[in-house]
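Methods — Computational structure assignment.
A single polypeptide chain was analysed. Its primary sequence is given first, followed by the predicted tertiary structure written as structure tokens.
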Amino acid sequence: MKTTKRIVSLALILLAAGTVFAGGKKDASASGASQFTSKELNITYTGTPQPAEKEYVIDVYAKNFEKQYGVKVNVDFVTQDDGVRKIESEQSTKNYVSDVLYVDTSRMGPYVNNGWVEDVTGMIHKGSTLTKMYDETTNKGSARLFIPNTFDVYVLAASVDALKYLPQGLTRQNVVDGITWEQYAEWAVNIAKGEGKGKTMLPANSQGSQLLYPMGGMGLAYGAKFPEFASDGFKKALEIIATIAKGNGFYSEQTQYSAPTDPMINGDVWLTFAHMSPIGVAYNAAPNQWIIGAAPKGSKGAGSTSGAWCWGVPKGAPHADLAAAWIDYVTTPQVNYELCTNFGGMLSPINEVAPLLGSGDVVMTAGSKMLGNTIVSGVPSANYKDWNAVKLLYHDALNQVLNTKQVPGDAFLRDLDTKCTALKN
């Protein structure tokens, strides 16, 4: 997940002054330290954060907690696969090290299904209410096993240079409010004709693949479920992709990227549909260069997939008292707002964060506006034996369209659907 280099000035000022607010409490280690026997907290942070994200987590997010409670926070950054292996080893050997976990919903299955984590319901900051969007993934029965920390939806980003190629009758405001997928495809082809090369992209790199999410969102807009391949709704989404492919509208090097950030920043991509965080990084690098719009609409409305990064507490946590304090801290509205703004403009799962948004929170505001009128699907990864294998099926579908410049036949799509079904638990 990429992130902006912008660090919230307020957090830095507070840090420098030695005064930190969390849950409305002033720091000085004195107010919090005495209630804990533990003196350090060990965080296993899965994923591969970008340098600016890692810097924020260590130098502001964790440091503020340290100053409030007079303790030491250790953050172990590991890949998602290594995170699963690490916690599996700790749980099986009972050699407990990790106090808190940071996990994506797409990889939550092992932690939830194997009973590795505690119920964290009572640890949430009092006065904070969480979205129920991810309850199917984060909860089991009456227990909440993970707490969403940030989430995103997919939004449209267009360079102001592309406005001259807008389909007839459309305006910049139409782009902000949400155009149709048919208009998006026409715009992509117009750009390619005018510029002599494709400047629209999908995140088509199969390593750390993100492709199924925008393609899944396109399918949802036409009534498809997520994931699936043989429905009429998904075929309609593939028709949009085929139209762009026929018009040579795709960026020729899109297979090298799992996010559009770098091609957006260097000017190679002028139009894309991607999740908010990488778009937020490019937007914040040049705010006057980009227009952020709602997800395009299909016959059923706008559609978007949505995943979340979540906090959990493993069973046997050696510093359980501080783990509970950490969950309280990260679910404090102001702390969460500052984190979201520093992660490219992610959405907050805490309802009380919405009033904190300001005029500069363009990407966050665009995503927030979509929530009330968009078909949103979470990430049902826990229902599948191998979510990465599901991801690669979307590459098979895309590559077939790009190679033939038409929608694949029914037999091809039914085969993908059969393979997807076979991957279910």
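Note: The chain is about 40% helix and 15% strand.
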